[in-house]
Amino acid sequence: SRIRTDLGQGVGPCGEHGFCGANVPIPCYTCIHFQPWLNGPHEDVYHGLLNERERVKEITGDIQIAAVLDRSIIAVADVI
């Protein structure tokens, strides 16, 4: 099945043919079944995560809370 961003842009298919309850697309980047497209909008996803990390840090004042997104940020960067 095709995985899309919140804006409806495709980022790639899932290689698992069963049910997945993940809140796509962010968790997909750390999943072994994700098959990212070479021309997908991965940079947009990456910048969105960086902005969200900064927003969480500003709201909470806690870098450890914001750092929860780091694994996903690194996974998206690896795709880029």
Number of helices: 3
Our Rg estimate from Cα atoms comes to 13 Å
Question: What is the overall pLDDT average?
Answer: 95
Oligomerization category of the chains in this entry: single chain
Number of strands: 2
Helix content bin: 40-55%
How large a portion of the residues is in β-strands, by DSSP E?
Answer: 5-15%
Order of helices and strands: EEHHH
Total number of domains: 1
Low-pLDDT stretches: none
Query: SS-based structural class?
Result: mainly alpha
User: How many strands, which pairing sense, and closed or not: the largest β-sheet?
Assistant: 2 strands, antiparallel
Enumerate the strands of the largest sheet in spatial order, edge to edge or round the barrel: 1-2
- Between the first and last Cα atoms, what is the distance in angstroms? 21 Å
Apparent shape = globular
Protein name: Recombinase
What would you say about this model in short?
The protein is mainly alpha-helical and 80 residues long.
Secondary structure elements and pairings:
Elements: E1 2-4, E2 10-13, H1 42-60, H2 63-66, H3 70-79
Antiparallel strand pairs: 1-2
Structure description:
With 80 residues, the chain is mainly alpha-helical. It has one domain. Helices cover 41% and strands 9% of the residues. A two-stranded antiparallel sheet has the order 1-2. A hairpin with a 5-residue loop joins strand 1 and strand 2. Helix 1 runs antiparallel to helix 3. The longest helix is centred in the middle third of the chain and has 19 residues. The chain is globular and about 40 Å long. It starts with a strand and ends with a helix. The mean pLDDT is 95.
